[in-house]
Structures are given as C-alpha cells and as structure tokens.
Amino acid sequence: MDKNTWIGFLLIAAIIVGFTMLNRPSKEELAERQRVQDSINLVRMAEREAQRLSDSLQLVAGEALEQAVQTVSHEQQQERLQAAYGTFARAAQGEEQFVTLTNEHLRVTLSTLGGRIEQAELLEYHASGDSLNPLCLFRGDESAFALTLITANNRILQTSNLYFTPLPSEQPDKAVLRLPTASEDAWIDFVYELSDNYMIHLSMEPHNMQTELAQNVNSLELQWRQLIPQQEQGRKFEERYAQLQYMLVGGDMEKLSESKDDSAKESARVKWIGYKDQFFSTVLIADDAFSSSQFASTPQSKHSGYIKEYATHTSVPFDLTGKTPTGFRWYLGPNHYHTLKAYDDDVAKDERLHLNKLVPLGWKIVSWINVYLVIPMFDLFTSWGLHIGIVILLMTIVIKLIILPFVFVSYKSSAKMRALKPQIDEINAKYPAEKMQERQQATMQLYQQAGVSPMSGCLPMLFQFPVLMAMFWFLPTAIELRGKSLWWAPDLSTYDAVFHWSVNIPLLGDHLSLFCLLMTICNIGYTYITMQSQATDPNMKFMKYMMYAMPLMFLFIFNDYAAGLSYYYLVSLFITILQTMIFRWTLDDKKMLAEMEENKKKKAGKPKSGFMARLEAMQREQQKMAREQAKAAQRRR
C-alpha cells in the first residue's frame, strides 16, 4: 500500500471521530432522554394494568350476570316444575340410584326413578350359550311399570317420571322407596319385601295424601310393558310357548295368541297377569284384583333378540287414607310345576292362584295323565339321582308296560286279519270293484264267523293315545331337561343340531337334529316290519307308500323339537320293534287260523249279533237306494 493511500485512511478516520465528538449529547440531554423513556414505560405499565383491571371487571361482571341469569332461570324452572308437577315438584328432579335385594334364588335391582323393578336375575339359571352370567328376565328399558297419580290441582302424573328417595333399612330383604311431596309430612312409600323364593311383594303406603291427591281418587291406573328376551337356542320352538296369560277372579284362565298380534279387553276382575316364556315367567299378582284391563301381545322380529312384547293397561284400588295399602306380588322365576303349585299349599280354595297352569300339560284328559302319572313317575326316578337319559328310558319302559295289553290286543287282531288274507283274496276275486257293497258284506260276514272284529285293532290304539300325548306335552315343557346333556346333545330341552347350513330349507330349517334323524330311521324300520306282517290290498299301493311317507313327515315336524322328546320316541320305537318281534314269535298264524275255523263251525246257523245284523241291514238299505238311483237315472235318459 503506498503513502497516499495511508494518508487517505487517516483523514477519513479523523473526520469520523471528530463528527462523533461534535454530535455527542450533553449530560442534560441524556437525563432528559431517560426521563422521557421512564415516562413512556410508566404509561405502558398503566395501560397494561388498566387492561388487566378492565378484563377483571368484565369477568366479574360476566359471572355476576351469569349468576343472576341462573338465579332467574332456577326460579323460572321451579315455577315451571311447580306448575307441571304440583305437590310432586320436588320429585321431578334427581339422580337415579339403585337398591339391590338378593336371596339364594333371585336378585332384584330397584330403581329410584319410578320406584320400579329395574332388573331381575335368576341366580340358578343361565341363558342359552352363557354359562357365566345369571339368567336375566329383563333389565333397563326392557320393562316399564308406571302408576298414574292425579294431584289436588288436577295434574296427571306418571310415577315413572318421578324420583323416589331410598330410606335406610335394617332388613336385607326389604327396601323402602319414598315419593316426597311439597309437604314434609305427606308422602307415598313403595315398600318392597323379597321372600325366600321367587316372590317379591310391593306395598304402596300413602301418608297424609288426602290433601295432596284428588279427593275422588279411589283407584290408580297401571301401565306395565315388558320385552321378552330370547333365552333358548330354538327360537321357533320358544315362540310357541311364549304367551300372555291371565287368570280371572274365580279361577278361569284366558290367554292371547302365541303366534300373531293379539289384544283383549277384560271387564271382569283379574287376579294375576303372566308374561310367559317357554321356561320362565314374570307374573304380576294383585293382593285384591285388577279391573278394566286391556292386554296386548306383539311378536318381535327374528333378529331383534326378543320373542314377544307384552303390554297391560289396568287399574287397581287405592285408599288415600293409607288404611288399606295397595299391594302386588311379582313372581319372577321358572315355569316349574311343583314350584308354582307350592304357592297354593295351605291356601283356601277360593284364594288359590293356580300358577301351575302356566306349565302347558295338554288337553284336560292329557293333563290328568301328566299330573297323576307322568310327573310323579318323573319325580320318583330323578329323586334316585339317575342321569336324565336313564330317567327317560325308565319312564318309557313303564309306559310301555302300562299300554302293553292294548298293544297286544291290537297286534293279535292284525295277525288274525293276516291269517284270513287268503280268504279275503277269494272274496275280492269273487266280487269285482264294481260290486264294492257285496264285497264288503261278504268280508264282514267272514269276520263275524271267524270271531274277528276290525275295530279290535283300532280301539286299543285309542286307549294308549292319551298316554303318548301326555309325554308329547310334558317333555318339551319340563324345565328339568334344560341344560341336561346326553351323548352329543348338550341340552335336551332344545334341538340337538349336528349339521348346520346357511340356507333356510322350507319345513326343515337351517339344521338337522341327530335324535330326530335316528327316530325317523327307526320309524321307517318299524313301518317296514308292520307292513310285512299285515294283510294289505294289492290295489291299495298308494296307502302303502303313504305309510312310509308318515315317518319322513315326522323328520320335518320334530326337527325343531326338544331332543329329549325325540330321544323318548327313539327309545319307544325301539322297544315297540322288540315287542313286535316277540309277539310274532309267540303267535302262530296257523294255530290262530285253526281257532277261527273252529269259531266259524260253532257260529254256523246261529243268529247274527245285533251289531252285525244292523250293519247288514244298513248295507241292504244302501244297495236298495243305489238300485233306485240307477233306475231313476235311466228313466231320465
């Protein structure tokens, strides 16, 4: 770098330093600037404080305004509640609470909203497919129970919209839910008491309600609705037994249709109302009686998870003074014959509940057989601690022994007819089909001479039919079979499906039950043996085919039925086949034919019996009428 460059840099530096020295502020100016800056900072701080105070004031004002609004809103709300609910305005608001009562059979949950039973569980039973949780008859919105109250200022209220207050109770099986009023000395208590079985009692006890409710109130309207959940595997079969039933005061039973929408109005007094499923029921029983009742039953869709919806609208007596409490009982339990019948033990005849009628045992004569034969026999064998399969086997053997004389008479009659078949064939050859009346007359004459009655084979079947029908009604409704297994069937109270498919085959469904299939095969075998041992008309081949078609029809009919019933029929058919083989070995056709020929000789020349004489007279009269009709037809031509 040369000398001129250095001189230039020095001159520039001197100028910059000199300019800085000349423009530097004095002490007075620096102090003034600091004072101005401090003033600005103070102003800014004041502005921030003012903003903070303003925000605080706005917040306080907002809270005060909101509180004022809430105060006004609360007052307005109380006014509206007072206008809508009258003396029960206090009960219009609250928080739902639950009270549980339990014994060894039943667990009941009460809700303070409505003072109703919110849930009922049977601790000894389980729903199909659920082995862990107790069977629940209903829970939550599946059941609704309400009473209508009319206040002194003509407000119409439902107890389902009011909150009750649970009171302390020293008894574990008792709960008191109190419905308060505007008066501290007026209320209605709902007193629930759980018995040592499946009954729970509700007593409605008013206290000083004469001025709180309308003076003309002497009854309360009651609304009760319940959905029936599907509890069993076989929905189709469960639907057949789910039914609304009720009993009139005096013992007469009424019921709604189990297969379609149905309703009924009942002007007579009703003692109890039963919401029934296949194996379990919820029954509302009045201490006095229900009056002016309306009932409705509505089947539910297959995929809803429910079988039926039942509804009742009725009324019950109500004493404002509380001297006569209004009472109900709920039966929440199984449709077990002895359990239900036990409620009539040591009870006057006109006060019996007849709850055992909830168990379907068939027509009158069939139910007698079930009550006096089948059920005692079942109880005896089960009391021995035997497996349920052995119990049904023993019952089948006993029933077969009872009807054995009738079966033997029927088989012997068939054997005689079979022995006479060659002679019947001669009659058929002698009289062609055009002379049917002459053929029948000759055949009946042959039977009369041989000492054979065609009715002797039919009457024994009529005698044993009620016994067979008794088992048909008993086994599908016996709750003792529920959950009991046998071989491949896990539950004898429902079908034992071993094959499933996704397509619903008409009449058969989506499964095939093995016991039903085995019963059908055994029935076809029995039909074959029977057809081989009977005398049949070769011109009646269609009837022969129909005999084989009947067992196939049973496959479609019983595929959805209880496996216990199919097992009974299987065992019964097997024993019947053995009986038939024994009868065949012990009865000699040649010997019977010789006896009948001897009878023909003895009866030759003897007057005919009154029955045969009347029968032949009728046949002659028919022949005469046929000839006259033929002549009349010829004259018209």
**CATH first level of the largest domain: which class?**
Mainly Beta
| Count of the separate structural domains | 2
Question: What is the CATH topology classification name of the largest domain?
Answer: Beta-galactosidase, Chain A, domain 5
The main β sheet shows up as: 14 strands, antiparallel
Percentage of residues in DSSP E strands: 15-25%
Distance between the termini: 162 Å
Q: What's the total helix number?
A: 14
Whole-number average pLDDT? 81
Supply the helix-strand structural class.
alpha+beta
Which blocks of ≥5 consecutive residues have pLDDT under 50?
Answer: none
Oligomeric state of this protein: single chain
Helix content: 40-55%
Short précis:
The chain is α+β, with helices and mostly antiparallel strands and 637 residues long. It is built from 14 helices and 20 strands.
